[in-house]
Amino acid sequence: MVHGLCARRGFLLGGLALGATLSTRPAAATLLRGLPLPVLVQRSERVVVLQPLESACRYAELAGRRSIVTDTRVAVHQSWRGSAVGELTLRTLGGRLDGVGELVHGQPLLELGVHGVAFLKLGRDGKVWWTTGMAQGHYPLTDASREALLLPDRQLPTLANPDTSAVKQLIGRPLEQARALVQRATLP
Q1: For residue 67, pLDDT beyond 90
Q2: Which of 45, 95, 104, 147 qualifies as a cystine partner to 70, CB 3.0-4.6 A?
């Protein structure tokens, strides 16, 4: 009889636990593998100081699926790696278009007028650029002066192995000190 009571209690507790699990919202978290600075630099064709000027959302075909993308026209003020260009288009996944919103966790947040350092790679179309490593390839600046400090992107998710990441090395650094770190990471 005791065995039967325990079995029923276990069944009841198991059922309650299952019900609680099914009735709660699933945890939502994004985890990116933190890229070390040399890897972030190596995977980037350009590293620039930029300023977003204007952005527009549109639909694009990506991996056989219609998705919303945001194209941001940016002014390049300094080039730390790669050729300098006056303006370029930087694309991020997600946005709001025709009353439909699409949020892609881990994408950088490019705020109009806010200067930042960006690690860039050219898209397959040869026309638009993407940040390398998603939000870990974009660092807004506290201001546009030489003493500006690099900040984490506001959309930066949790990083696996954060202690060896470029984010750990760059956040809080003055602009010129960050530039020297990037140039050292570029050397063979």
Answers
A1: yes
A2: 95
- C-alpha 47/C-alpha 170 separation (Å) is 13
What CA–CA distance (Å, rounded) separates 55 from 128? 13
- The token duo for 84 is 């300098």
For the stretch 21-66, pLDDT in tens is: 444 444 446 787 899 999 999 999 999 999 999 999 999 998 899 9
**Overall residue count recorded for the chain in this entry:** 188
Q: Which helix (H) or strand (E) holds 38?
A: helix 37-42
CB 97 within 8 A of CB 58: yes
DSSP string across 1-26: -HHHHHHHHHHHHHHHHHHHHHHSPP
Closest CA to 131 of 166, 163, 101: 166
Q: Which tokens go with 161?
A: 């192995």
CA 127 to CA 161: how far, in whole Å? 33
Backbone angles phi, psi at 38, to 5 degrees: -60, -35
| Pairing of β 138-140 and β 65-81 | unpaired
Please name which of 43, 116, 58, 48 lies closest in space to residue 91, comparing C-alpha atoms. Answer: 58
Distance in angstroms (rounded) separating the CA atoms of residues 182 and 39 = 11
Give pTM, 2 decimals. Answer: 0.81
For tokens 């200067």, what's the residue? 115
Distance CA 137, CA 88 (A): 16
Query: Cα separation of 1 and 83, whole Å?
Result: 81
